[in-house]
Structure formats: structure tokens, C-alpha cells
Design a protein that fits this description.
single chain; about 190 residues; alpha+beta
């Protein structure tokens, strides 16, 4: 039953964003005009879905059919982390690092969790964390460490540091929940420029 709930969750997980999407494969971009908030992804089926405006039908692409997709301020890309192929939102990319996250629901809990990974330029895991909104001491501490970890891996990314500083400034040190906003609205920061 929980797997069905998980699948339904992924199928309905979407974002508000502008009405166009760029699908990039081998350096070539294909642009589509799409219905607002129609982007969805499903890690079980290894596909993305979006509704093309002029066709008024749902289009799907397998994870192997694109390198990444961009819409609004988001970038969605496929990574293999811990031998699992999954779609991630790229929050930051520098010459030698990636910061990626994905939202999921595990079989043991009905709570949303964020898998957050720091990857090197070869997409190998440097460090990974699982974050959620619970008030366990472990989760409060992990959320509190996010600022320091991102600052360590992306010290020269001013755009990302500005976002982090604003979140940290408004953060409640009792539960550090405000730091999750970085992953709830996964905006891409190009730290190479």
C-alpha cells in the first residue's frame, strides 16, 4: 500500500514555473511550450511528464532520453547515487562540484524526506544526507549543519551563499526547519560564472 501511495505522490509532485521547458541531450536543446505546473517525474518508471500546450496531451520522456531539463529557475538531471538511478534537482553546479536534492517518501514513513548529495565533477558522491521535518535531535542537528556543509563545498558561489545567508538569518535555531526551504524550492545556481 505504501508503494502505491509513494507512486501516486511522485506522479502528482509538480512545480509552478514558466510555460516553457528546455530538454537538453548531447548539447542540443529542444524547447516546448507547456502548461504551467505540468512537470512531473516518476523515479519508479524512470520518466518525466509534461503537458505540451498546443497538443493538449501529456508527453513523457524516459530518463535516458535527456541529459537534463530546465524550466524556470529549475534544472532536473539524472544521477546514479548509491547504485540507484534517480532524478534530482540541481541546486548548484561549479567546475568541480554538484549540489543535488530530491524529494521522496520511504516505505517506513509517510513523511517527506529530502535526499541531499554533494557530488564531484565525475558525479561521485562526496557526502549525502537524508533530511526531514521531524523534530528529532539528529534531524535538528543535520539541518543545522547544512549551512556549514554547503559553505565548505561551494565557498566561491556568491549566489548560493546569499540564499543560504538569508535562510540562516531567518532560521529558528531550536529546530532549523527554515533550512529546508532551499530544497522545497530547488532553484538552480550556476556557480561556474
Amino acid at each position: 500500500m505504501k508503494k502505491i501511495i509513494y507512486l501516486l505522490f511522485l506522479m502528482t509532485f509538480n512545480f509552478a514555473f514558466p510555460d516553457s521547458i528546455s530538454v537538453c541531450k548531447n548539447g542540443l536543446k529542444s524547447d516546448f511550450q507547456i502548461e504551467k505546473s505540468s512537470f512531473k517525474y516518476d523515479d519508479e518508471e524512470k520518466k518525466i511528464y509534461f503537458e505540451v500546450s498546443n497538443e493538449k496531451k501529456l508527453k513523457s520522456l524516459k530518463y535516458d532520453e535527456f541529459d537534463y531539463v530546465e524550466f524556470g529557475s529549475c534544472r532536473f538531471q539524472i544521477f546514479i547515487v548509491n547504485n540507484i538511478k534517480r532524478g534530482y534537482f540541481v541546486l548548484a553546479k561549479s567546475k568541480d562540484r554538484y549540489l543535488v536534492s530530491t524529494l521522496y517518501n520511504d516505505d517506513d514513513s509517510e513523511k517527506n524526506k529530502y535526499a541531499v548529495c554533494f557530488l564531484d565533477s565525475n558525479k561521485k558522491v562526496l557526502e549525502s544526507l537524508i533530511l526531514d521535518q521531524t523534530n528529532s535531535i539528529e534531524q535538528i542537528d543535520l539541518r543545522g549543519e547544512i549551512y556549514v556543509k554547503i559553505k565548505f563545498y561551494f565557498p566561491k558561489c556568491d549566489k548560493l551563499m546569499e540564499k543560504l545567508f538569508a535562510l540562516d538569518k531567518a532560521n529558528n535555531p531550536i529546530n532549523n526547519l527554515n533550512m529546508l526551504k532551499l530544497f522545497q524550492k530547488p532553484e538552480f545556481c550556476d556557480c561556474e560564472n
